[in-house]
Amino acid sequence: MTQRMTYPFAAIVGQEKMKLALTLNLINPTLSGVLIRGEKGTAKSTAVRALAEILPEIEVVRSCPFQLSLNSERDVCRECARVECRERILKGEPVETLKRKIRVIELPVGATEDRVVGTLDLEHALKMGEKRIEPGLLAAAHRGILYVDEVNLLDDHVVDVLLDSAAMGINTIEREGVSFSHPARFTLVGTMNPEEGELRPQLLDRFGLCVHIESLQDPEQRVAIMERRAAFDEDPESFCRQWEGASAQLVREIENAIQLYPRVTVDRSLFFEIAAYCLDVGVDGHRGDIIILKTAKTIAAFNSRTEVIREDIDTAAELALPHRMRRQPLQDIVMDVKSVRRNRNQG
């Protein structure tokens, strides 16, 4: 069976903010994900799947439903009573591992809480007298990407669970008096069409970054989209080979940024600049300040720098503040943060 080719991330035309927001979240998962707002047919799902395809492989314990690495969270396997490696771990014997691509786990709109979080296998508990956890989508998404299309149509409670796990990096299953936790560190990507309704402000605030994308209006870019897509459909392998160099370069930049991020410093004067940004545009709470700081450091690392500059703060604010600014009832999310700040200061 021929393997299905994935459209290269580097070949996507335009939508630079979306591509930057996705890349930054992969460098620094503590940014708490990205919400992509915009109409259909603007390469949202294409970008997510393509980015996962070019990332380095990860090492996982074979047959582990929690995507665990060999050197971390072994206690999860001891509690699970389901993984094939359990007996080996308890005896201190070697455990078989394998390397595979980072996965994109898609969450269907109609997903129930049990499907997302996981549940207790009651039949096994009754027959064998021991607990066994049936992992949910959050377990499958650990160390990967959780993609939620039309996130605004999900049940609010399910969205709360997703955002809590994304923020804390842990998922807890509590059923029939049994409590079980496992790692759930993933890059959360939500997409939505604003015409179908907005998320509640409390939920919007939980997404680290937010971008709004539209159909490209430049004829040259629209023609480039058609040409590239036609070439990909006609000969996917040849088309992907043409973009191998650009894809490999992006991988190197991401890997370098991950290594560089812990060494990035921020001058204290820029902390005041971040605070002024949030106060000037009317942001409630302090999550926006913290996300801008993390985003600016990630941008600096992505640009191979160990010191944040003013331009990093500006770019970070454009990604971290649009969905956090105070708005009038029925007012749409304002995406031009710098203009809002300038107008309010002039006023």
Q: Which of globular, elongated, flat, extended, rod-shaped describes the shape? A: globular
Q: How do the helices and strands follow one another from N- to C-terminus?
A: HEHEHHEEHEHEHEHEEEHEHHHHHHH
Return the CATH architecture of the largest domain: 3-Layer(aba) Sandwich
CATH topology of the largest domain: Rossmann fold
Number of strands: 11
Q: Order the strands across the largest sheet as they lie in space.
A: 4-7-10-1-11
CATH top level assignment of the largest domain: Alpha Beta
What's the total helix number?
16
Mean pLDDT, all residues: 80
Structural class: alpha/beta
Query: C-alpha Rg, in Å?
Result: 22 Å
Largest sheet composition: 5 strands, parallel
Key features?
347 residues; alpha/beta; Helicase, Ruva Protein, domain 3; five-stranded parallel β-sheet; two-stranded antiparallel sheet; globular
Compile the SSE list and pairings.
Layout: H1 16-27, E1 34-38, H2 44-54, E2 58-61, H3 74-80, H4 86-91, E3 97-100, E4 104-106, H5 113-117, E5 118-120, H6 122-128, E6 133-135, H7 137-141, E7 145-148, H8 156-168, E8 170-175, E9 178-183, E10 187-192, H9 201-204, E11 209-213, H10 219-234, H11 236-242, H12 244-260, H13 268-281, H14 287-302, H15 310-320, H16 337-346
Parallel strand pairs: 1-10, 1-11, 4-7, 7-10
Antiparallel strand pairs: 2-3, 5-6, 8-9
How would you describe this structure to a colleague?
Pathway: Porphyrin-containing compound metabolism; bacteriochlorophyll biosynthesis. This is Mg-protoporphyrin IX chelatase. GO terms for molecular function: ATP binding. The protein is α/β, with parallel strands linked by helices. It has 2 domains: 185 residues, Rossmann fold (3-Layer(aba) Sandwich), CATH 3.40.50.300; 81 residues, Helicase, Ruva Protein, domain 3 (Orthogonal Bundle), CATH 1.10.8.80. It is 46% helix and 14% strand. The protein has 16 helices and 11 strands. The strands form 4 sheets. It has a 5-stranded parallel β-sheet with strand order 4-7-10-1-11, with helices on both faces. Helix 10 crosses helix 11, helix 12 crosses helix 14 and helix 13 packs across helix 14. The protein is globular, with a radius of gyration of 22 Å.
